[in-house]
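Job type: complex structure
Entries:
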Amino acid sequence: MSNRHPEIVLPDADARRELRRRTRRDFLVGGIAGLAGIGAYEWITRAAQDNGTPWPQRNVLDLNGKISEAYLSHSHLMPSYGASQISPLKVNGDIGVDDDFDKKGWRLQVAVGETDPSLHLQMSDITSLPKVTMITRFCCIEGWSAIVSWGGARFSDFTRRYFPQGQKLPGYVAMVTPNEDYYVGLDMKSALHPQTLLAYERNGQPLEDAHGAPLRLVIPVKYGIKNIKRIGMVRYTDTRPDDYWAEEGYDWFAGL
Amino acid sequence: MQKLKLKHLVAIRWFHWINFPLLFLMIWSGILIYWAYPIYRLGPLVFFPKWFYSTFHIDHRLADGMALHFFFMWFFVVNGVAYIIYTLVSGEWRLLLPRSWSAFEDAWYVVLHDLHLRREIPAQEKYNAAQQISYTAIILMGVGSVLTGFAIYKPAQLAWLAAMFGGYPNARAIHFILTIGYVLFFVVHVMQVILAGWNNFRSMVIGYEAAQAEQSGNAPQRLAVAGEHE
């Protein structure tokens, strides 16, 4: 494979022999390299599954997540839009919100660590926090997006008020629907992003049932799959929480 | 006398053949992702018809596609960046980059020539003007794919990048159009390689092309090494 000779001049028979020799050698090397590549691909795609993804790919997804988390900044914002740019938001999933549900009896459970919930908040405990409205792009992992106006309380404000004073904030937040059918895990940095809201309004109206009434998460720095509807419990935890779609082969971090 | 003439440097050959399966995998995993929201069309032409998805078992593999896409992207980017740096350091860029605006006129004549509509072909160095433009364009397209890719990968953290491409949906569309561009490039490229023949194709593997040595009185009898570089 050497490049040392820009030109090799030989009598015809020797030239043919030299060509044949190099062709044999380099096609052999190429063939071996090709087989090695196919072998690597087979390994990458057929290795033991880790949450619906072969583990080499899962490891790279997690590595990408780590890099994304390190780069994530509370000053990097999803762009906001004007009211005239608001677009329809389709109802894409009903996992966790497809059963009869007693909205009046709803309470938001708040737990710290692996203990039982220590707080049972009412809607007024959320609406009493500073209200934020924002018009941002909601990005579904499928590829579509919509521009939506949301109203609610910053999760960072919520944490400041309801997380026990003086205690060290853990690395993660888990959120679960009342029936526990849908659940998401969030890194604390994304959860405390200024655009992360516990939302109770969409387009200036109370949240519709299909969009997660009475209270849902809106986290523009994550794909829609993390924007859990009808939150039943918030848990601050140091162990990375289970995540519904991460168990189905998707990236756990799912950050934007 | 015959000569073996060095045509493609060994590093360039490796970059090329490593890029081929990587680009294929990026396109393949990209189609797995695209299936989940397949909105683009060209008049009556739909990307892609149902039979295409079912024949190649593309449907319902979004997670699979994303895991593959965000796995191989690193290798694709590293190989591409290494290629660009190598062409700059080795000086190969001088042969690859169109040298002046007249390259576009020359390229047109090359196309006419290749279509057998014109007898003469403009004077060229290693690559003709059409090749120079194609091989430069494909690199710029690669840069575009990486940038639009990052724009749709991180539209919040890299909001400025998404804005540069006209926003998130636009960046996705450009990312897709560039991919169609690779496929078109590939079709023309393979046709040209077939037409150019075995000697040319082999040179992309072994580096050397067989050529007739100029007849001169004192042709060397055994292996002789000519000047450092042409």
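Summary: Confidence is low (pLDDT under 50) at residues 217-230 of chain B. Chain B has nine helices and five strands.
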